[in-house]
Amino acid sequence: MKNVILLLFAASLLWGCRKENENVSADPTDENQVNAPLLSWWQPKAGVTFDWCLDDLKASDTFTAEVVDVDAFTTTAAQVAALHKQGKKVIAYLSVGTIEDDRPDANLLPAEVIGKIYDEWPHEKWLDIRKPEKLQPWLKSRINMILSKGFDAVEPDNIDSYDNDSGFDISLDDTKRYCDYLIALAHQNGLGIGQKNVPELADTYSKQFDWVLTEDAFADKFQDDLKSYISLNKPVVAVEYTDRTSQSSFSSTICPKAKSLGYFALLKRRSLEKWSFNCQ
Question: Which positions fall inside the Glycoside-hydrolase family GH114 TIM-barrel domain (predicted)?
Fold first, then answer.
């Protein structure tokens, strides 16, 4: 009987610790907050429906998809909670490879890590991801903000600086080391995290990221590079853009291919406002 009582006592302590970790309240000003590890995070399964909207959300906005990917900064905690009440999982879109000139946290980055202007997005500048220790206060602040708003996961954008004129000599191996850091940072805080583009990572990193989100994978013909995610029952979300693919071509050509591969395909305007069209 003593042994049974001791086992029950130990189990109650373990359960209490788990609940304490699950209900931790993130303080965006506390750098140590991100060091409190959680025991699990949201891990979606292949086949989940998805929507992506980086416009400011309105109170009247509703989504039919099970998962909604929205801007980490402009989306409020109340809006995240409202989406949760609708039964949605909510992903925070976040740049981790550039700094945008309209974000309030640029002062957390030392000048030495800020590089050239991103040609396609002139309000952003590339960052030197070879020095994650220099980026750490900035990244932790962003993660704490995401935690404080109640997001379920992170979409880390702009991890492809190795393939751009960033002003730094960044290699694919540097990118992999940075991904290792980002994945650990997200998971130790109970957040899911997805791979964004960079198909070269898929075979290895499908085991570490929780899903993959691509842009124009079918238009650029790298869709087959993502199959390892499906083999692990993890989602592949293939977003195609209307400036490359018409709605009729999307329906007649891409949708059958996506379905055969087990991907969720979504047609969006490149501005990523509310409008979406997916395979029926």
Answer: 49-275
Instruction: State the CATH number of the domain containing residue 176.
Output: 3.20.20.70
| pLDDT over 80 (residue 188) | yes
pLDDT tens per residue, range 36-78: 455 699 999 999 999 999 999 988 888 999 999 999 999 999 9
- Specify if 183 maps to a domain: yes
Kindly calculate the radius of gyration of the chain based on its CA atoms and give it in whole angstroms: 20
For the chain, give the number of residues. Answer: 280
Kind plus residue range of the DSSP H or E element containing 122: strand 121-127
> What global pTM score does this model have?
0.86
Instruction: With respect to residue 265, please indicate whether it lies within any of the assigned structural domains.
Output: yes
Domain-located, residue 39: no
How many domains, the chain? 1
DSSP-derived secondary structure letter, 108: G
3-state secondary structure of 55: coil
In what helix (H) or strand (E) does residue 241 lie, and over which residues does it extend?
strand 236-241
What is the domain extent for residue 107?
51-278
Mean pLDDT to the nearest integer, 94-117:
96
68, two tokens? 């909604």
